[in-house]
Design brief:
2 copies of one chain form a homodimer. By secondary structure, chain A is of the alpha/beta class. Chain A folds into 3 domains: 8-51, no CATH class; 65-162 and 296-324, Rossmann fold, CATH 3.40.50; 164-294 and 327-341, Response regulator (Rossmann fold, 3-Layer(aba) Sandwich). Helix content of chain A is 46%, strand content 15%. The first copy, chain A, is built from 14 helices and 12 strands. In chain A, the strands form 2 sheets. A 6-stranded parallel sheet of chain A has the order 2-1-3-4-5-11, with helices on both faces. In chain A, helix 6 runs parallel beside helix 7 (132-140). Chain A is elongated. At the A-B interface, helix 4, helix 5, strand 2, helix 11 and helix 12 of A face helix 4, helix 5, strand 2, helix 11 and helix 12 of B. Strand 2 (95-98) of chain A pairs antiparallel with strand 2 (95-98) of chain B, so a sheet runs across the interface. Chain A binds a DNA duplex (16 and 16 nucleotides) through helix 2 and helix 4.
Chain lengths: 342, 342
DNA sequence: CTGTTAGCGCATTCAA
DNA sequence: TTGAATGCGCTAACAG
């Protein structure tokens, strides 16, 4: 009740007049006589006893913590994932410890070293760039790791990813159906896993529909942020006038929206816009943003469950899960282009 | 190098031909002969030895972890704070463990119990609602706690808060200067600390400028989210037509922006808009959103440093820091109302 | 059902 | 400088 100093099993045992083993048993719900249970409970209550997590961890070899490492905490898609992972693992008594990396592969390698100190029981990692070195370290890791995002072929690690090639395809298909022909693409850095995949998806989808890809119709933002998106959109618009733009994520799309309206053009009247990730900001945007839902929350949940599974069964077979994308249609892409209308 | 099974001090000691004490010393940089240092280093490297964090924690009584509990992980302002705190404490070797609470005081009390298990060395807490019970538990806590947000008078806890009364004042003053007279207010729940403070600020600022507060000019969103903001804005607009609205945070403001434009009105032409928190979305919004910067990042940094200070010096005097607000003016509030212009 | 005991892996005191 | 020994607080054998 009152600000107890710090009681341990021994203190409780003394007060209850039993052995420390009995205290431990009672507190862990193991069989004990009513008399013992009662006295232990009372003693523990009186002393304000709280079991020590560190000591328990050392003994049982589990920290009840899961580490999460994502590249960009500023990106709403990661926030949503973080939230979901936290929710899922909490149900199994795990806490979430955040390990922010700058997106550089080296940061992630450092993290792995650190992880091996055993401050967490497992890791969920969403790397932006996957180097050979990183892959090598990943395989060597002593504890369970689940990767969110694509991995090179042949890498046998639990992993859950989105089919972003198909995702971009959905966007292009939708825009084409609305009668758009000049479909540009604002991508993030091409040397990232999502950047490369989304570019591939764009090119394939355009080819499939026999839409011509104007050389000036693709630009790359220096990273997946709003700020970089502004620059990229400026550079795109100043050299080419599309009637639609697919953006590699929602932040880039919102940036494009801003640049477009700033130029006196309208969305979707002059230029239709589709983002990716379907984050909260797609809903907030004005007009609201059509976006490819890559199942971020579903991926997060799947990753968390995969990790929990492996934590409970280290020998389980490696599992790779692909989440299918779907399109969330909102205002930014509806209707034909104004030019076509008039 | 290769996937070492799991080496401990003893293993390293054996291989190096010294005692475990020497290994411990070398690895912690304590004085030792060159010969010993060298052989230990070599052995450790060969074995891929990594010290165990849990064992170290148990021994030294420190986990090197700081817990952070915020009400709503979905709110960008908390994300920004989280990020900053993580950055600051990482420099001192601390990790961040996330403890999401639902915003209910009971969740926070549960968290405190949990904290006393010692999985972290300290806590940074930003409670939405401060009950007497919570305050009582806060005082009893065995480990250092820093509160972000206002506390009842007389509660002696390290704490850093924003002067949101003045913050709202800045917003009202700015709008009044632009010639707006019918300044409405969209608040969050009134039973929260920020909700209560911001309402007070609004009323005081309006009174100070002798602006009349129409009874229908204030509405309360059921929480500080975009969705709740839509409802609140609808209900406001349908009963009253202001020429400006101050919103208790950016999410509510963006929601209001959407409702306003959906009605065919313009921002800031018909209605000027000011948000609070000055989060990323203020920049993204279209038009960009004028917002009261409550120094979220500064508060986060101050809180982190306060906690680190107390961790290093448990006897330090309690410190309470107030961060001054400032206004970030953007497009949503610039210029006179259209009616006034025409 | 209960008590005694042995570590988990490490930092640290105390002797040597 | 170095090694042997102790114990952080707890759980899990093992006896009784």
């Amino acid at each position: 009740m009152a600000m107890a100093k710090k009681s341990t099993l021994v203190l409780v045992a003394e007060r209850a007049g039993v052995s420390i083993a009995s205290v431990s048993r009672v507190l862990n719900g193991l069989p004990a006589s009513d008399r013992v249970v009662e006295s232990v409970r009372a003693a523990a209550r009186d002393l304000g006893y709280v079991p020590d997590a560190t000591a328990r961890s050392l003994k049982v070899g589990k920290t009840e913590q899961v580490a999460l490492a994502v590249a960009d905490v500023g990106n709403p898609v990661y926030v949503a994932m973080m939230h979901e992972i936290s929710r899922v693992i909490a149900k199994d008594g795990y806490r979430l410890v955040l390990s922010s990396t700058g997106g550089a592969a080296q940061d992630e390698i450092d993290l792995l070293d650190n992880l091996n100190r055993g401050f967490a029981d497992g890791l969920i990692l969403s790397p932006l760039r996957v180097t050979d070195d990183l892959v090598a370290r990943l395989r060597e890791s002593r504890l369970p790791i689940v990767i969110i995002g694509s991995l090179p072929d042949g890498v046998e690690l639990d992993n859950v990813r989105a089919d972003s090639v198909r995702g971009v395809g959905l966007a292009v298909k939708h825009l084409a159906k609305q009668g758009r022909r000049q479909i540009a693409f604002i991508n993030g850095p091409i040397d990232t896993v999502p950047g490369a995949a989304r570019l591939g998806g764009y090119l394939r989808a355009m080819a499939k529909r026999e839409l011509v890809v104007h050389p000036d119709a693709q630009v790359y933002a220096s990273d997946f942020t709003f700020k970089a998106g502004l620059e990229a959109a400026e550079s795109l618009i100043s050299q080419f006038t599309p009637d639609a733009i697919v953006c590699a994520n929602d932040l880039l799309a919102v940036a494009a929206m801003k640049v477009i309206t700033r130029r006196g053009l309208s969305v979707p009247g002059d230029i239709a816009l589709v983002g990716m990730d379907d984050t909260d900001i797609a809903e907030l945007a004005n007009p609201s943003l059509t976006s490819v839902n890559l199942g971020s929350v579903a991926r997060a949940r799947a990753a968390a469950k995969l990790l929990l599974r492996r934590l409970n069964d280290p020998g389980a077979p490696v599992k790779q899960i692909v989440i299918e994308p779907r399109l969330t249609i909102r205002e930014s892409s509806i209707g034909p282009a104004q030019a076509a209308t008039s």
